[in-house]
Structure formats: structure tokens, C-alpha cells
């Protein structure tokens, strides 16, 4: 059976290294959608950060953001939302500050952090959003938090944070890398795979017609769950190990290749 639900990661997958969707990929997506394929995005990004790219593609389907904690149409209607306990958010912020690791949180699709620095500026540029440095008032923005993000100064610092949080907050939070320096902090059981299952239920797509494609560790759950689990050519070794298939990298239209191979 050909893929009928096509779910793609964003950075390093749908977007090339210049954070653009190439014309070839746009044409392939248009062809797939016209043929009845349900095409959507599953990203660790904020909804407001993913939205311009979804609008560029001209699709209005539920978009999976915050690594599966929020599923929301481009037009605004919410399908699913999951938020972290406020006390846990406070504990994670306290941990990060105690370890001198940059942390930011999201509330009502807005970005908050303690103070502006090179890491907050880097993130805002990469995500195309405007953040809010709120200092000691950060505890006022801990309601409706779908996830938090640690940013390491180096990949090694990010790796240490993953191990440390897994030990200190076992069973309470999942720490997974989405880039060499980004560490996503998400609720156990909430991930891209759980979000795809909800999408398949909404659209009544059988399991054997689901395709997921990505490049980073936060994509692993959905690649393992999907019948067509596809790694980009630029994916890391962990992703390639679990993927059933592999296509070209994000600078050589891997998404277009996947559409041609598995949707037609």
C-alpha cells in the first residue's frame, strides 16, 4: 500500500540547510496533496514558528508542534494539547539555573526565558520568533507549558544534560535531542509517534499507509511507529539505525524523493 499520511519533521528534513523549502519539494508536495495524500509537519518548534512554512505550502491540516504536545490546524482550531505540571516546570527551571544551563519555556505559544544572551538570540533567529526575557518573573509563565528546551553551549554539554535529567527526573520528563545542542523536555508518552496516531485516527488512515520522515533523535519514535520510517541522508546515526528506508539529504530534495518512492 502506498503512503496516504505523510508526516515530516521540519528542520533538516522539510527545510534545507538555509531553512527554506525548495521549489522541487514544494511541487512534489502539491502533487501528493492533489492525489489525496494527507501531508503534515511534526516538529519540536512552536506552532507560531511552524505556521509560516505550513502556510507557504498552502495546506490546512492539523500541524504537530512541540514534539506532539500540541496539534492544531493552521487556521487555528486546536485538536489536542498536553501540558506539564507547573511544579515540575519550576523544578526543571531550578535545575537548569543551578547547573548554569540555558533553559526556555513556552506558554500560550509564547517564548519566555530568564535573560537575553547569545543562546536566546540564536534560537530566536533560527525559529523566526520573538522571545521575552522576564527575569525573576519567569514563574508567572509556567501555566500551559507543553515543553521546555535546554540549549547547550556545546553538543557535549547537551549530552550531559540528557543523561543528568534522565537520572534526576526519571519517569517525570523525557529529555531528547532535536539538534546537537537542543534538548527537548517533554512529558512521558507525548511524542511525535503519539501525535501521528491521533492524526491517523482523525483521517482514518490504516497503519500500513503511514509514512514518517526525519533526521534527529526526537524523530525516532515516529520512524519506529510508521510503516514507512524514512531517514534523511543528513540524519544522525541513531536515526539511520532505526529507519527502514533512507533518501537524499535536505539539500538534495529528500522529501521529494520520498514522495515519489512511497506515495506514487
What would you note in describing this structure?
With 264 residues, this protein is of the alpha/beta class. The protein has two domains: 5-81 and 190-262, 3-Layer(aba) Sandwich (Rossmann fold); 86-186, Hypothetical Protein, Haloacid Dehalogenase-like Hydrolase, Chain: A, domain 2 (2-Layer Sandwich), CATH 3.30.1240. Helices cover 36% and strands 22% of the residues. It is built from nine helices and 14 strands. It has helices at 23-34, 47-57, 86-99, 118-127, 155-168, 192-203, 220-225, 237-242, 254-262, and strands at 5-8, 38-41, 62-65, 70-73, 78-81, 102-107, 110-113, 131-133, 148-151, 174-177, 182-186, 210-214, 228-231, 245-246. The strands form three sheets. It has a six-stranded mixed β-sheet, sandwiched between helices. Strands 2-1-12-13-14 form a five-stranded parallel β-sheet, with helices on both faces. Helix 1 (23-34) runs parallel beside helix 9. The radius of gyration is 18 Å and the shape is globular.
Layout of helices and strands:
Blueprint: E1 5-8, H1 23-34, E2 38-41, H2 47-57, E3 62-65, E4 70-73, E5 78-81, H3 86-99, E6 102-107, E7 110-113, H4 118-127, E8 131-133, E9 148-151, H5 155-168, E10 174-177, E11 182-186, H6 192-203, E12 210-214, H7 220-225, E13 228-231, H8 237-242, E14 245-246, H9 254-262
Helix pairs in contact: 1-9
Amino acid at each position: 500500500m502506498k503512503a496516504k499520511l505523510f508526516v515530516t519533521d521540519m528542520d533538516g528534513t522539510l527545510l534545507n540547510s538555509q531553512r527554506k523549502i525548495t521549489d522541487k519539494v514544494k511541487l512534489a508536495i502539491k502533487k501528493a496533496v492533489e492525489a489525496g495524500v494527507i501531508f503534515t509537519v511534526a516538529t519540536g518548534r512552536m506552532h507560531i514558528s511552524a505556521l509560516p512554512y505550513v502556510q507557504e505550502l498552502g495546506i490546512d491540516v492539523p500541524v504537530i508542534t512541540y514534539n506532539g504536545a500540541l496539534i492544531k490546524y493552521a487556521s487555528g482550531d486546536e485538536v489536542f494539547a498536553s501540558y506539564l505540571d507547573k511544579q515540575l516546570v519550576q523544578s526543571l527551571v531550578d535545575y537548569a539555573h543551578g547547573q548554569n544551563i540555558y533553559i526556555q519555556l513556552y506558554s500560550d505559544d509564547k517564548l519566555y526565558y530568564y535573560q537575553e544572551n547569545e543562546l536566546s538570540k540564536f534560537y530566536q533567529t533560527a525559529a523566526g520568533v520573538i522571545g521575552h526575557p522576564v527575569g525573576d518573573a519567569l514563574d508567572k509563565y509556567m501555566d500551559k507549558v507543553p515543553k521546555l528546551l535546554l540549549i547547550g553551549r556545546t553538543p557535549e554539554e547537551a549530552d550531559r544534560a540528557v543523561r543528568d535529567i534522565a537520572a534526576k527526573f526519571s519517569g517525570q520528563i523525557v529529555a531528547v535531542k532535536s539538534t546537537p545542542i537542543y534538548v527537548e523536555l517533554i512529558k512521558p508518552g507525548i511524542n511525535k509517534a503519539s501525535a501521528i496516531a491521533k492524526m491517523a485516527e482523525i483521517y482514518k488512515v490504516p497503519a500500513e499507509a503511514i509514512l514518517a520522515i526525519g533526521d534527529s533523535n526526537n524523530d525516532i519514535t515516529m520512524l519506529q511507529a510508521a510503516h514507512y520510517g524514512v531517514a534523511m541522508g543528513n540524519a544522525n546515526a541513531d536515526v539511520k539505525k532505526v529507519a527502514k528506508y533512507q533518501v537524499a539529504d535536505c539539500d538534495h530534495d529528500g522529501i521529494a524523493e520520498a514522495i515519489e518512492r512511497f506515495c506514487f
